Amino acid sequence: MNTVGSLNEENHEINLSCYIDSFPILKNPVRDKRLVYLDTAASAQKPDIVINTINDFYKTEYANIHRGVYWLSERATVKYEMARKKVAEFLDAASETEIVFTKSATESINLVASSWGGKNLSTNDEVIITELEHHANIVPWHILRESTGIVIKSVRLDDNGCIDLNHFYELLSEKTKLLSLTHASNALGIIPPIKEMISAAHSLGALVLIDGCQGAVHQPVSVQDMDADFYVFSGHKLYGPTGIGVLYAKSNILQDMPPYQGGGDMIVTVSTQESTYADPPLRFEAGTPNIVGAIGLSAAIDFVTNIGMHNISNYEDTLLKYGREKLGELNYIKFYGDASNKASIISFDIDGVHPHDVGTILDQDGISVRVGHHCAQPVMQHFGIAGTVRASFALYNTKEDIDLLINGVEKVRSIFT
Amino acid sequence: MLDLRELYQEVILDHGKSPRNFGQLEDKNTEAHGHNPLCGDTITIYLHITDEIIKDIRFEGKGCAISLASASMMTELLKGKTTKEASKLFGKFHALVAEDKEVNNFETDNEEFEKLHVLAGVKEYPMRVKCATLPWHTFKAAVENNNGKVSTE
Fold this sequence. Notes:
The structure holds 2 protein chains of 2 kinds.
Chain A: E1 6-8, E2 13-15, E3 36-37, H1 48-60, H2 71-91, E4 99-102, H3 105-120, E5 126-130, H4 139-148, E6 151-155, H5 165-171, E7 176-182, H6 194-203, E8 207-211, H7 223-226, E9 230-234, E10 245-249, H8 251-255, E11 267-270, E12 275-277, H9 291-307, H10 309-328, E13 333-336, E14 345-350, H11 355-364, E15 367-368, E16 370-372, H12 377-383, E17 388-392, H13 399-416
Parallel strand pairs in A: 3-15, 5-6, 5-7, 7-8, 8-9
Antiparallel strand pairs in A: 1-2, 4-10, 9-10, 11-12, 13-14, 14-17, 16-17
Chain B: H1 10-17, E1 30-36, E2 41-50, E3 53-62, H2 65-78, H3 83-98, H4 111-114, H5 129-152
Antiparallel strand pairs in B: 1-2, 2-3
Helix pairs in contact in B: 1-2, 2-5, 3-5
């Protein structure tokens, strides 16, 4: 692939529509209508290169890794470790030994809470989260609190749903041991000022975990530049397969962390009474890992890096702006989380219509949006609502998709008035 | 004739917008609260039951058009029925919205129950079936609460 989309010279808008054909699912009608898939924030559709890589690997190169001395196993091991290197480059990590494969971003956060938190946190140590977080970055800290007695503090949001930085600075203290923060809100799209917050947390000796599920898919990431201590994301939101997630952690931190689970592949020696553990990252990958998932994720990273994360980011910003403008022309739409710095997510509701009814009526026209609380109930509590309608845009969406969404929204409104 | 697949019909929109028997019930003698954690819908069913007859039924809650309409139509149907009859009607309603058409025999439904046929379209949207059944499950819990009281007195 050597095309990076076309640039419209007049308005400097990048157009990635040449990549739509790479996604076979988009050619299949849904309820006899063209599929308008606007739920990438929940999970992205898969390009041919990911599907074919998985298919080909199973057909020609599959075996278990790290143990066989035969050709296939060596081949599979090389591919799996190449995937790790690819992820390290994608995140701009200092070394691939800082990359642990997990089953999901959720597992990555649970791993940090259980292993790092279990060892380093005790009664009255404070973990700061925010009201923007996905449940995956809330519940693991609740579970850790039960065993350690940590205190969880949560940063408030302002009226728009942005982080209340004053409140953050009020909460931050020498008791703070960890700031666990989203790179971009899955419910609203809002991107917090993470560099400022990371730097402030570091100045008081706290570590920082960034939940990159919505960030890594939307813009280039450098964990070294942002200076995150932990960074997690899920493969399936980056056009890769399900069941594969990533935990990045700085070498010295990872080195000091005890195992998360025990089993094969994470040991050096085992007797019936004692085990010694492998160095990271293998120390945290007990059992046969998701080999095919890692290789599929590697193909997905090739796919997005060939297009260019900058180009994807610019293109998605164009869609976001267009969608916001078009929906904004309808005076019965209320927006949640309007801000200048956002991932390509619009959260809204239609006056007088429950989000679930909106979702079902749009679905009748092949338009897939997410409705409800988006696994971010504190955000909904902040606005005093049960849920929203969420449209999220990816590199395979077009302005025409947004026009169809607008038609759908108008139809919903007309049914209910 | 009604097209059973069409979900958002006038009747549903009407009940959703102006639900019948909405609000508290002064002389309730049992109630139950229902919650759908998936969508955040909540409902409270208030009942006044005497001699196993549902003398009065009202409800309160927040939800989508489907759940509000289902609750509203349920209250209209159940007022004056015995709890036994109500239990049978729940079975019929469940079959209508959540089970294969083949096992139903809707032709034999009386006019009163036929009104609920407008909700059958929800079957096409499995994620939404709970919206339609939440009021009924909550009603059942309220009746059981009442039975509980009776049996201990």
